[in-house]
Amino acid sequence: MTKLKNDTCLRALLRQPTEYTPVWVMRQAGRYLPEYNQTRERAGDFMSLCKNPDLATEVTLQPLARFPLDAAILFSDILTIPDAMGMGLYFSAGEGPKFERPLHNEWEIRDLIVPDPNVHLRYVMDAVSQIRKALNNEVPLIGFAGSPFTLACYMVEGGSSQDFAKIKTMLYQRPELLHHILDVNARAVTAYLNAQIEAGAQIVMIYDSWGGALSHAAYHEFSLPYMEQIVSGLIRERDGATIPSIVFTKGGGLWLESIAAIGCDSIGLDWTIDIGQARARVGDKVSLQGNLDPAVLFSNPEVVRAEVGKVLASYGKGSGHVFNLGHGISQFTPPDNAAAMVAAVHELSKPYHS
Amino acid sequence: MTKLKNDTCLRALLRQPTEYTPVWVMRQAGRYLPEYNQTRERAGDFMSLCKNPDLATEVTLQPLARFPLDAAILFSDILTIPDAMGMGLYFSAGEGPKFERPLHNEWEIRDLIVPDPNVHLRYVMDAVSQIRKALNNEVPLIGFAGSPFTLACYMVEGGSSQDFAKIKTMLYQRPELLHHILDVNARAVTAYLNAQIEAGAQIVMIYDSWGGALSHAAYHEFSLPYMEQIVSGLIRERDGATIPSIVFTKGGGLWLESIAAIGCDSIGLDWTIDIGQARARVGDKVSLQGNLDPAVLFSNPEVVRAEVGKVLASYGKGSGHVFNLGHGISQFTPPDNAAAMVAAVHELSKPYHS
After folding, report:
1. Cα gap B36→B55, rounded to integer Å
2. A223 near A148, Cβ under 8 Å?
3. Residue B50: exposed, middle, or buried by beta-carbon count in 10 A (0-12, 13-18, 19+)?
4. What domain range is A105 assigned to?
5. Coil vs helix vs strand at A292
6. Is the link from the previous residue into A337 a cis peptide, with omega within 30 of 0?
7. Could you say which of A220, B93, B226, B290 would form a disulfide bridge with B186 (CB–CB 3.0 to 4.6 Å)?
8. Residue numbers in A near B253 (CB within 8 A)
9. Residues of chain A contacting B216 with CB distance shorter than 8 Å
């Protein structure tokens, strides 16, 4: 394999020196880009776009053509795994993802099987290889999956939820059932991420979108240990390069010390925590990714630049910071503000790395 | 004024010794109680219930007739203030609160006035006096208001919001406009809470439901200082008794040290933080209120008892803890589980106070 032309993101994730702070954007291939909406229209719906490797490659590359981003991220969805388990994922307009066959009873839970990623999720692996090829070693490719708990939320609730009443009832009343789902999910995610690595992913990220809805004790029993199980089962090196792992629990700012201890290389931060304080708490155990409030991108380029400067200043001197938003970019973001953010990160971060 | 027969909650809020840990429940008069639903049906809709002091008194007392709670809380809504400002509050089924005339432009913002609570919110003061009389000094009455930032969210967004796009755009692009709204709100809330105290409220609580949606820096600029302004303007003593103040920022677990420094007597905790760790962080500056996951009440009395025991054990020995849920009780809660929680708090907490 040829060497990466820009490996700044890889180095920052591993806390190695860089010349500037690298930047990518969660959901960087998305609805705020007119070219994305055009491709999606051609695809028909969201899942058809995910399942078509040509089109998934096309949209993955779109933000890189616009902005000098330091990484690409696979265009896909966290719910591909439960879909491959046979649960029937679909998207209903305005209501987000739903499952035709959510987990209703005990035998459905006992019957859950770990899908073979190279069979049941072949379309994802094809997309990964094709994107990797198309990237031509310009920047690294990030693969990803949902956390076991986050996947379980959708599998049990049947879709998005405000109060997580069903899964939390199970958690408190039938914890052993939930542990069974989580163990299956953890094995499924491990196999899935490793298949993505084999197919060409150079960084992997676990999205724990709903772990932050748990109590302190429940997070440490039902979300974090399963992410630890995944991290410890990941392929560590491929073609001579280390594959860094990033764990992102939205709303997990209180638990950074515990997250830093599971063996991941980097922690994704949402925008509610001061990144300098986060750095002081995790020390040199992990790198940090984040954490501009996505709403800053509703303002204007001058404000964006100033707010980027504040995040960089709070992190301070030295490596170990990958700039990102604290959550996915909103569909209502003017692309010019995203451009201003990327430019500001590259320009304003240099003094912190001299 | 006669002395309170049960002043355990008052003493705990002020970190004075008590014989057991007092307990009340956020939204304790609510839809999980069949008798509440009957009264509400008679009233017509939610705001008619709030605006009728007889009926507001009736529902305020209902949970106390069922459970040996250590405090009553005024039945009302945080949005009475913007309603009194002329914004036209209404509730549309399934969509939560909305305003007929949200703040659209600069002159509407500049024209905002502080409503006179004894005129424009007379119905609230009437309810407070009437409830206080009906309580017959059994337990203290809690008055409350929304935080200036939380009120501003509804006033600018026009209703509930997922991403707070409008108010955050204002925050980043026109911060001085938002500061103006917040200053008006802070003055309105101060006058409102003081009028509640004059009418008979013995404890006051500020609900900062959406402060947790802000970045660390924005919280410290746009939410916390305005709660500090309120707290420092509150009547401190009435009829020889201190009026304790409670500040509750949902999702504010990262900011406890700053909240403890604004002069409030107590901090409300949501369920995501371990209350023992919270106590270690705030020391003897404030008491703590919380913080059982409301979803625990979806389980059964045995589990409820065990989970109550864990919260009490985490807080540990000594006073300064008022037991509560970490958020409002869900409408889907079986009342028997609420009863089990109250009983468990009273019974299991005694050893921690010996």
Report:
1. 10
2. yes
3. buried
4. 8-353
5. strand
6. no
7. B226
8. 253-254
9. 272-274, 277
Residue A302's closest chain B neighbor by CA?
B173
Structure tokens that stand for B5 in this block: 């027969």
Global pTM value? 0.96
Residue A3 lies in a domain: no
Whether residue B108 lies within 8 A of chain A, CB to CB, comes out as no
Which strand (E) or helix (H) includes residue B130? helix B122-135
Instruction: Kindly report, residue by residue over A71-118, the tens digit of the pLDDT.
Output: 999 999 999 999 999 999 998 877 789 999 999 899 999 999 999 999
In a domain, B3, yes or no: no
Nearest to A168 among B173, B254, B298 (CB): B298
- Here the CATH number for the domain that contains residue B149 is 3.20.20.210
The one-letter code for the residue type at B113 is I
Chain B CB contacts of A253 below 8 Å: 253-254
Cα distance between residue A334 and residue B88, in whole Å? 32
Q: How far is CA A178 from CA A109, A156, A161, B43, B124, in A?
A: 9, 9, 17, 42, 45
Q: Are B223 and B230 in contact (CB under 8 A)?
A: no
CA B309/CA B345 separation, integer angstroms = 8
Please give the single-letter amino acid code of residue A131: I
**Token duo for residue A212:** 């932050």
Please say whether the beta carbons of A97 and A110 come within 8 A.
no
Q: Residues near A230 by Cβ (< 8 Å), separated by ≥ 6?
A: A145, A148, A186, A189, A190, A193, A206
User: Is B301 an 8 Å CB contact of chain A?
Assistant: no
DSSP-derived secondary structure letter, B4: P
Q: Which of A168, A274, A295 sits opposite B295 (nearest CB)?
A: A168
Distance (Å, whole) CA B11 – CA A279: 39
The reply to whether A192 falls in a domain is: yes
* Identity at B91, one-letter amino acid code: F
Q: CA–CA separation, A331 vs A41, rounded Å?
A: 15
User: A299 in contact with B at a CB cutoff of 8 Å?
Assistant: yes
**Residue A244, in any domain of the structure:** yes
DSSP state of A159: B
| Cross-chain residue pair A172–B296, CB shorter than 8 Å | yes
Radius of gyration of chain A (CA): 19
B263 burial level (CB within 10 Å; 0-12, 13-18, 19+): middle
Which residues pair with residue B58 across a beta bridge? Answer: none
Domain count across chain A: 1
Percentage of chain A with pLDDT > 90? 95
Tokens of A195: 């298949």
**Which two tokens mark B323?**
């037991």
Closest residue in B to A327 (Cα–Cα) = B163
pLDDT tens profile A226-284: 999 999 999 999 999 999 999 999 999 999 999 999 999 999 999 999 999 999 999 99
Tell me the backbone φ, ψ of residue B96, rounded to 5 degrees.
75, -165
Residues 6+ apart with CB under 8 A from A187: A114
Name the residues of B annotated as catalytic: 27, 31, 40, 77, 154
ipTM attached to this prediction: 0.95
The residues of chain B scoring below 50 in pLDDT are none
Which 8-state DSSP code applies to residue A272? T
* Catalytically annotated residues of A: 27, 31, 40, 77, 154
